[in-house]
Amino acid sequence: MTLLYDALIFDVDGVLIDTDDSYFALVGQAIRWAWGLSPQRRTDGEPFLWEHYRVAKGHRALNDDYDIAWALLCLSASTGERLLSRAFPTPERWKMLLEAFEGSDVISWVKEAFGEGFSRQEVRSLCEELYFGEGKLWEKRGRRARIREASGLWQMEHPLIGRRWQDLPLPVGIYTGRPRAELDLGLELLRWSNLPRERAVTPDDGVRKPSPEGLHRLCSRLKATAPLFFGDTESDREAWRRFGKGAFVAIGSILEGDLLHFLNVEEALDRLLSR
Known about the structure:
Order of helices and strands: EEHHHHHHHHEEHEHEHEEH
Structural class: alpha/beta
Distance between the termini: 6 Å
């Protein structure tokens, strides 16, 4: 293997950390809370389903979970319906709309297709509050809580890898859609807090998937030319396609058709590092 590849670059959510009970729940909660904040609208039920999430993650432009919530809210608002259950798209309609969206700029697409019935900044702030929760983590960010019962969905996450980064046989980097503050929580969970800061690229660095720029920067810093990039969504795979070096390793159940495809990252490392 060392003759073929010279670095290991990981996405975080769904690869290094199980976020099924955090970010999926966060999107659903953010949609209900944001819809209910308007006195003209009524929230009923929980319309956001796993199939909505899976479809979104299958599109190269929807790497950011906060933008998934915002896009679905703007789409729902564009119907003019008051009840969330009536305004919310079915998974089939959501899939049809995303299949017709051929670009990678989700912000422009949402505004042009549905209008900005919800402020993106406000929705993102709400998502952050749900993720960090009421209390010290939120107060450290200098914000006033609106959701008193927010317990902090980050606490629902657990690691998918038991290895320390420094125990892996090749240089390690991270290319993630998590903002730096959320990545820091994830690194604590993984016991990777001592990973040098320059070995992680986040949106705070001005880089968002599916841009290949994060892979270029990491390879430059790691002095690598042929990395293995471990990802679980279409935005990860598209970033690697545009990068064009090394190999892409698909993790989990969302992606299909990849030569290197494994149920989890531990299985992938066992198989690939033993070659």
